[in-house]
Specification:
Residues 46-292 form the G-protein coupled receptors family 1 profile domain. One of its GO terms (molecular function) is olfactory receptor activity. There is one protein chain. The protein has helices at 26-56, 63-89, 99-132, 137-140, 143-169, 186-190, 198-230, 235-263, 273-294, 297-317; strands at 16-19, 96-98, 178-179. The chain is an all-alpha fold. The chain has one domain: Rhodopsin 7-helix transmembrane proteins (Rhopdopsin 7-helix transmembrane proteins, Up-down Bundle), CATH 1.20.1070.10. Helix 1 runs antiparallel to helix 2 (63-89), helix 1 packs parallel to helix 9 (273-294) and helix 1 packs across helix 10 (297-317). The longest helix has 34 residues, at 99-132. It is globular, with a radius of gyration of 22 Å. Mean pLDDT is 83; it is low at 1-10.
Length: 318
């Protein structure tokens, strides 16, 4: 494996990392470029459409849509940390990233990824209260409580990512500098450190694994309680609740499955890792708007009203 080093005064003499990317085959890279550019545009447009619909369609006052709005915002940010660079690299001969850029990617991936996990967990709690304690819903899920929970998701994501970056930054890198991935993540970067990374890797796995698995278990328990309590409701109430919960459960499975596979194991990398990473950095943020709009009558109605109002304004403007 080729190494690229540059003499610097400090121990860390690697100033950039080289990505191997998704493929070394130019023809496959060109096909991937078209596919992932389309996916990224769908992520931006789909999530932006949900944000506009929630804010303009008077849904923002409802706790579920309050959190859905921020989930869409996090999805845009999360995919934007890796997707634009990956898409550009598919057509570039030199797939390089600076050391600082690499550390920023590690921070961004874990900050927005962890925040998304916490928002999904809070949304599960919101559904639990709405279905299991409907009479107390507006009292329990007041705006002040929602704001505090939202702040908690951002603070939790920030603390998690700062720990991850702090563990990586203190390690020396002296070459080789080639990463068998399409973005900087903790485990692929740790493999290049010129030091024993066993303890750091164990702490990273414990940190990420606890958050991913812990949140997943909480979500499973929440939705199990919800599904059990639904049998006591009327057929119409059950159908409406299942429609909403079904979309949440689909998002949770699609997002947490790959995340748990990646971060619940020790410092080992598999050839499948890149495709699994594509799933939670690009595919999930793209599917979220589709899942939430296709299975949610309120969002669809709000969109219809929004666009019919827009069409009316345009017509009257003429």
């Amino acid at each position: 494996m080729a190494s690229w080093t540059h003499p610097m005064e400090k121990l860390n003499n690697v100033t950039e990392f080289i990505f191997w990317g998704l493929s070394q085959n130019p023809e496959i890279e060109e096909i991937c470029f078209v596919i992932f550019l389309f996916f990224y545009l769908v992520i931006l447009l789909g999530n932006f459409l949900i944000m506009v619909t929630v804010c303009q369609g008077n849904l923002f006052k409802t706790p579920m849509y309050f959190f859905l709005n921020f989930l869409s915002f996090v999805d845009i940010c999360y995919s934007s940390v890796t997707a634009p660079k990956m898409i550009m690299d598919l057509l570039a001969k030199n797939k390089s990233i600076s050391y600082a850029g690499c550390m920023l990617q590690v921070f961004g991936v874990h900050f927005f990824g962890c925040t998304e996990i916490f928002i999904l967990t809070v949304m599960a709690y919101d559904r639990y209260v709405a279905i299991c304690k409907p009479l107390h819903y507006m009292t329990i899920m007041g705006r002040e409580k929602c704001n505090k929970m939202l702040l908690g998701t951002w603070v939790g994501g920030f603390l998690h990512s700062i720990i991850q970056v702090a563990l990586v930054v203190q390690l020396p890198f002296c070459g080789p500098n080639e990463i068998d991935h399409y973005f900087c993540d903790v485990h692929p970067v740790l493999k290049l450190a010129c030091a024993d990374t066993y303890i750091v890797s164990a702490v990273v796995t414990a940190n990420s694994g606890t958050i991913a698995l812990g949140s997943f278990v909480i979500l499973l328990i929440s939705y199990s309680i919800i599904l059990v309590s639904l049998w006591k409701q009327s057929a119409e109430g059950r159908r409406k609740a299942l429609s909403t919960c079904g979309s949440h459960i689909a998002v949770v499975i699609i997002f947490f499955g790959p995340c748990t596979f990646m971060y619940m194991r020790p410092d080992t990398t598999f050839s499948e890792d890149k495709m699994v990473a594509v799933f939670y950095t690009i595919v999930t943020p793209m599917l979220n708007p589709l899942i939430y709009t296709l299975r949610n009558a309120e969002v669809k109605n709000a969109m219809r009203k929004l666009w019919s109002r827009k069409a009316f304004w345009e017509a009257s403007g003429k």
